[in-house]
Amino acid sequence: MSSLLASRAARRLRPRCRPSAATGFCASGRRHGGPFDPVENPPILRPKRLETLFSAPAPIGSPRHHLLGLRQTLSLASITSSSSSRDPNKEEEEEKPWNRRPVSKSSWINLYLPEYVRPYALLARLDKPIGTWLLAWPCFWSITMAAQPGEFPDFKMLALFGCGAVLLRGAGCTVNDLLDRDIDEKVERTKSRPFASGLLNPSQGVAFLGVQLLLGLGILLQLNNYSRILGASSLLLVFSYPLMKRWTFWPQAYLGLTFNWGALLGWAAIKGSLDPAIVLPLYCSGVSWTLVYDTIYAHQDKEDDLKAGVKSTALRFGDLTKNWITGFGIACISSLSISGFNAELAWPYYLFLTGAAGQLGWQILTVDLSDRADCNRKFVSNKWFGAFVFSGILFGRLAS
């Protein structure tokens, strides 16, 4: 019965004559729209009758009730068809964890590394080499200072410590992100890190940390026994540093103790022992330098740190930050002068040290501590400070 009613309704909606496919005119001469004019003079659909047919209430079980049910079924089928037309490959691509927060297209990680490797490269901060430079420079300083007068430093040791800086910095970042994943979610600058954003889970991070430490052990075993013990002891600082921001306003000082351990280790790798008159002032200079650049760096996150309950020297110093870091800058240059004097470096060292002092003074005087971008620029510029000091030690040793 419902099919009979549907066929009658369809006949009422047809035009009264069928136009020719070639001309668009019917036998009566009336034009209804041919294949080249499909929208002109459409057939009259009698909207009032259709409105009555489809919107008027119909008794349950009546033919019109069945027709309304058929119309609803067709509508649901069209909705289902449109929703299922989404590209399954695109959905699968969106669900991949490394695509939740894609890295910048300009990053070499995104351009050259396989997709499954990218989260680990981001975890090790391979796209941000400034941390590796800041860790490597104190190592290079002490290795070069330990060279014989008039000779170049040991290039094999420079290469080993360079690779070690990459691995140890990556391991430190892995430990830091594992312990701070609950804090990183609350900080604008860090919420896209692999653990905070869901790119990696803690189990994957621990496994990756094991690989990093194993490779680092391979480098450490190539040093003398004294250096092996000294290098292994630095892991205590590496693993405990991330907790300092919860307990003290001086986590930057603790980072200085950690990041500048290479000032001791580099000398020991060449000499087999430590000369306190040279390496202790060198180590203190590195700690003071870290307090300058990492306090500037911490000013990027001071608002978020307050909300998350995290401590830093940026919050401790407040409006007096420039006074504090000026003092640390003076301590840094003074300690470098003492170390170079005790190591009997020649006059080129002090020439380059003057340039390094100028670079550090420029940072402190011009940094806008309320501008995150400017704080980051000044922080990154510290690779040039390290290069100035290294060049001074190199030429000072060659000329001595």
From TrEMBL:
<feature type="transmembrane region" description="Helical">
    <location>
        <begin position="347"/>
        <end position="367"/>
    </location>
</feature>
<keyword id="KW-0414">Isoprene biosynthesis</keyword>
<feature type="transmembrane region" description="Helical">
    <location>
        <begin position="276"/>
        <end position="299"/>
    </location>
</feature>
<keyword id="KW-0812">Transmembrane</keyword>
<feature type="transmembrane region" description="Helical">
    <location>
        <begin position="159"/>
        <end position="179"/>
    </location>
</feature>
<comment type="similarity">
    <text>Belongs to the UbiA prenyltransferase family.</text>
</comment>
<feature type="transmembrane region" description="Helical">
    <location>
        <begin position="253"/>
        <end position="270"/>
    </location>
</feature>
<feature type="transmembrane region" description="Helical">
    <location>
        <begin position="199"/>
        <end position="220"/>
    </location>
</feature>
<feature type="transmembrane region" description="Helical">
    <location>
        <begin position="130"/>
        <end position="147"/>
    </location>
</feature>
<keyword id="KW-0496">Mitochondrion</keyword>
<dbReference type="GO" id="GO:0005743">
    <property type="term" value="C:mitochondrial inner membrane"/>
</dbReference>
<keyword id="KW-0999">Mitochondrion inner membrane</keyword>
<keyword id="KW-0808">Transferase</keyword>
<dbReference type="InterPro" id="IPR030470">
    <property type="entry name" value="UbiA_prenylTrfase_CS"/>
</dbReference>
<dbReference type="InterPro" id="IPR044878">
    <property type="entry name" value="UbiA_sf"/>
</dbReference>
<keyword id="KW-0472">Membrane</keyword>
<feature type="transmembrane region" description="Helical">
    <location>
        <begin position="379"/>
        <end position="399"/>
    </location>
</feature>
<keyword id="KW-0831">Ubiquinone biosynthesis</keyword>
<comment type="function">
    <text>Catalyzes the prenylation of para-hydroxybenzoate (PHB) with an all-trans polyprenyl group. Mediates the second step in the final reaction sequence of coenzyme Q (CoQ) biosynthesis, which is the condensation of the polyisoprenoid side chain with PHB, generating the first membrane-bound Q intermediate.</text>
</comment>
<dbReference type="InterPro" id="IPR000537">
    <property type="entry name" value="UbiA_prenyltransferase"/>
</dbReference>
<protein>
    <recommendedName>
        <fullName>4-hydroxybenzoate polyprenyltransferase, mitochondrial</fullName>
        <ecNumber>2.5.1.39</ecNumber>
    </recommendedName>
</protein>
<dbReference type="InterPro" id="IPR006370">
    <property type="entry name" value="HB_polyprenyltransferase-like"/>
</dbReference>
<keyword id="KW-1133">Transmembrane helix</keyword>
<comment type="pathway">
    <text>Cofactor biosynthesis; ubiquinone biosynthesis.</text>
</comment>
<dbReference type="GO" id="GO:0008412">
    <property type="term" value="F:4-hydroxybenzoate polyprenyltransferase activity"/>
</dbReference>
<dbReference type="Pfam" id="PF01040">
    <property type="entry name" value="UbiA"/>
</dbReference>
<dbReference type="InterPro" id="IPR039653">
    <property type="entry name" value="Prenyltransferase"/>
</dbReference>
<dbReference type="GO" id="GO:0102930">
    <property type="term" value="F:4-hydroxybenzoate geranyltransferase activity"/>
</dbReference>
<dbReference type="GO" id="GO:0008299">
    <property type="term" value="P:isoprenoid biosynthetic process"/>
</dbReference>
<dbReference type="GO" id="GO:0006744">
    <property type="term" value="P:ubiquinone biosynthetic process"/>
</dbReference>
<feature type="region of interest" description="Disordered">
    <location>
        <begin position="79"/>
        <end position="99"/>
    </location>
</feature>
